Amino acid sequence: MNIKNCSKCGKIFAYDGINKLCPKCRKEEEEEFSRVKEYIYNNPGANIQLVSEETGVPVKKILRYLREGRLELKDEYNNLILACERCGKPIKTGRFCDKCVVELQRELKGAVAKNESIRKNKEKDKMYIAERYKK
Ligand SMILES: [Zn+2]
Ligand SMILES: [Zn+2]
């Protein structure tokens, strides 16, 4: 039999080759999961922050459930749980809505281009100064 340290509490337990958690922690995780599931079921319009607050389960973990597809929400509720961090629009996955992703990428590119032109201007100045010293 394999012995392993629980990746959550560090306690030694009999490893079954699948679970990284000891039976106690596994049970806790399962309870957390069912708490989230139940809460969402009863409050389909709740956003993820509220679900986290009400269930005591970290947002990160809830997002993981969603990403792993463990939380199966009805389609009409599916997009109520997550909100775009930028505009607050309901989204299904990730941190931003499609529109904001595009805009953020554009802004990022714009910022890079701006830095690039500042750098070029500085180089021009340097060259100008160098030219002057030559004379
Ligand atoms: Zn444990
Ligand atoms: Zn957005």
Specify the helix fraction band: 55-70%
Q: Largest sheet, order of strands side by side?
A: 1-2
Number of helices: 5
Strand count, sense and barrel status of the largest sheet are:
2 strands, antiparallel
Please mark out the parts with pLDDT under 50 across 5 or more consecutive residues, or reply none: none
Which range does the strand content fall in?
5-15%
Global mean pLDDT: 82
Order of H and E elements: EEHHHHEEH
Nutshell version of this structure?
This protein has about 140 residues and is mainly α. The chain contains five helices and four strands. The termini are far apart.
Write the layout of secondary structure elements.
Elements: E1 2-5, E2 12-15, H1 23-42, H2 48-55, H3 59-68, H4 75-78, E3 82-83, E4 90-91, H5 98-134
Antiparallel strand pairs: 1-2, 3-4
Helix pairs in contact: 1-2
